[in-house]
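Handoff note, outgoing to incoming analyst
You'll be picking up this chain. Sequence as last confirmed:
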Amino acid sequence: GEGLRRRARDSAVPGFRMADKDHEAALAELLGEVGPLDDKKAGGDAGNRSSNGVHTAEDDVSVERELNLGPLDITSERDNDVFAALEEGGLDLDLVKYADHDVVRSVMENSDATDLKRRAKAVEDKLQSVEMESIKDYVAESDNLLELHAQIQSCDGILGDMESLLSGFKTELGKISTEIRSLQDQSQSMGIKLRNRKAAERGLSEFVNSITLPPDLVRTIAEEDVSERYLSALADLDRRLKSVEANPSASASKSAEDVVPELERLKATACAKSREFMMARFYSLRKPKTNVQILQQNSIMPYKYLVTFLANHAPAILTEVRACYVDTMSKVLRQAIHGYVSSLRSLQQDIASRTDLLGAEENAASGAGSFFAQFGGAKSAAALKNRSSVFSLGSRAAVLGNLETTPPLIVHQVQSQGLKVPHEALFRSSHKLVMDTATFEYLFCVEFWQQDRTIFNDVFAPTIATMEENLQLGLAHGGASNVFGGNFDAIGLLLMILINREHRVVMSKRKVPCLDHYLDGVNMTLWPKFKEVFDAHLQSVLTANVNTMFKDDVRAHYVARRYAEFAASMIALGGGGSMANGESDGFIGDGQLESNLERLRFAVHALLLKVAKMFPGKKRGTVFLFNNFDTICAVVREARPIFLKYDENGGGQTFSNETFKFFDEQLAAQSDAFVEEELADHFGPLIEFVKSAETLQKGAEGEEGQAPSLQQATQLMRDFADRWKGAIERIHAEVIKNFGNLQRGMDVLQRTLSQLLVYYTRFTGPDGVLAQMGPDGAALCKDAVTNPAFMYEIKRHSQSRIN
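Most recent structure output, in case you need it:
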């Protein structure tokens, strides 16, 4: 190995070293090819080095990683490059260079010279073989290489031509870009000039148009009558006048000195002709039997531009024209409304008088204190009794239906049918006419008089005053002959309040606020009057003379009948109850009506109690109260506010009838009282014996008395067995006699007999009084009336009817 190294150093050229990376890589691969040694020897050497601390397996791994040694394939193209690199630098020189490398030293030390030479020879032969094969490959591909070389030269030529062409394009585009920028500058300059010339043209055109007067314009305004063509000429004249006034330079021009005086004369002519035309149209509204609204819409409204022209150029003339319109329309509308209201007097139906109060005596209407006799009315109070009850609503609520679409009454049609109409219907009809008239007039004034809403107030003020005067007279004490009379008709007044409320809703839907103040005033007038009439009804009940109105008759009193109808009417119109959530219904009056009905309810109840005490027997007073309370409940049971909303399935707002609840409770109490009193009349000793015996048997504290006697019990048993059927017959006959409502009477009879069975069971039952008296008392129970016998009699009498 040492000799080989010397040989390699001797044959090496001084100063020659393979410094390039390709040579180093080729040598690393060659060392990898010859690097693997005999396994045993390599293992022994590795063990020796490891034990001597000279070389370890980890050192081999680090060397391999540094030199990147790996298996070499001599047949690959990569090996050709390796051998070429080795041959270029000389193998001997490399061996000398890497003689101290562990791999090279291992090879030198463990291989003999012959094997090493043989291997070197094989490597050199293989390198020569690979070199020859490589040369053959290059020779075989020489034609292709020549052809490729020719193609590359051709491509170079084409690319050169393209480069020249694109250079020419670039030069041309630069020239075009310069021309475009120049054209843009010229275009902007021309656009500015065009806008300036157009602005100058407009100014000059406006000036020329405003400072000149076409002959057709002068002829139309000076000679023609007012028409659509005339209105167009006025608009043209208005434009020219405004243009001259708004342009100081035009006013100061020489041409204006000649034209402006002519414009002023033409304006004066137009204003005079407009005034004359409008005054003539307004005076035409004063003709009798003129349909004012049609004339306003067809003959006046198309010329509303005259108002605009006068407002711009002749305010004084416009004031004069406005005053003429206000004077004309205020008189026309007042006369029309007043005439219609006066004609309605022939249709009025008088409903109530001073004597038609809840607490008034039945025969008071024919007395000398009658309202119409007192004021000289043509109709007697007795004639009022030939109509339906003054306390019943009846069909009068129909006046509240379709208030917006129902037209006012046509007087001569109603007169031809011979009908009379209550005051609330006249109130609705007259106010419907006022609403429709006011709506049309308000919209006309707003549109015709350039949104001037004050002119409507001037026009309609006399009409409003007339309506307020009629309303005040109608609600006065002597106003029964007035259209808005009915000063003692509480139902009519409440209907008027509801009609007025709905009229406010209608005007709100129309978005016409012109009558808001008037309708609020009507409401403020009607409510105090209604309160006055309601208080009169209440006072008549509180101050009623019980002695004069008492009759020994247990049937329903006329005060109860009046009150039932009156309360049902009030509930239907205004509420008088509470909703499902416990709050007041609040339909009208913010709870005032409910409070008044409560006061009246207590007053009527107190009056009926006073009358009941005047009956000779307590039981007759109980029957009297029962019949009166039953009558009231029967009438008010189904009373519900007509303004409650319901859906198709019967649902919707729920209502609690406080009046019915109150009198229904009183009715139940009187029913219980009658049962006890009736049984006490027929079976008093038996009931008293049962109650006293139960008290003693229970040993109640503070109770003293004689113990129940067996002899007394035996006597009561015999007495009951002898006459219980007859007593039931007498009870049945008395119920039929005293109770006007047969169904209610049968209910009371059934309750009476059922209570009798309860007492008898407490007397003879298994846990009754007799059973608690010992064997002798229990023996008496054997002869007691059986329950089936009792039930048979109860069923038989409860199902019976009057023949």
